Amino acid sequence: MNSHAKNVLITGASKRIGAACARLLHSEGCNIFLHYRSSAAEAQQLCDELNQQRPGSAKIMQADLLNMAELEAVAREACLAWGGIDVLVNNASSFYPTAISDVTERQWDELLGGNLKAPFFLAKALAKTLADNKGCIVNIIDIHAERGLSGYPVYSISKAGLAAMTKVLAKELGPAVRVNGVAPGAILWPDNDLSEQAKLEILQRVALKRSGEPLDIAKAVLFLIKDAGYITGQILTVDGGRTLFC
What we know:
This protein is an alpha/beta fold. It is about 45% helix and about 15% strand.
């Protein structure tokens, strides 16, 4: 990827999009610091897989990023792992519905905390090492940051904030650090089951008439890290054309 291997911290890296990013970036020669909150078995399996391919190239750490002390510990340990961090991928995210009529303060704090506050304070904690290494930040956002998802108002607000943060930090941390985002569309269905009819209705509003894959997002992240040296403050939409429709 460059004359030296990049050291990458990925939050929420144990499965789904985070794991796809970890595998692809690792295949490009990166060292990967895998953060996870609760998926210990998946994180350990992924770490072992990467280290079997290249010994010493992956490390894991458990943390609740809503806890500021644990968040700062992740940033600190990631910096110590290989002598600094070149790339921060803010992938960890909370996603669940919150009806306006009964949303609680705890749900607000959890969704805003995980999807907006944690990425901001990780960027703050890593700003110096990223600047020293002329590194970059990639935030995993959501197409519903622009058009809120019905039934998920607090989630949508949190992602809208992350989109705004991407542009603000690009100005605040430039010129040394580039900050961009990727906004996925229909990539993975939620853990809570959707009916086949509901999935079909969603895909009918996608220009390519199919869902994407985690690798599609990982490739966009790789592009922003590797080949986008003159791109900052931008959000790359990877949605198969979903946002072409109302």
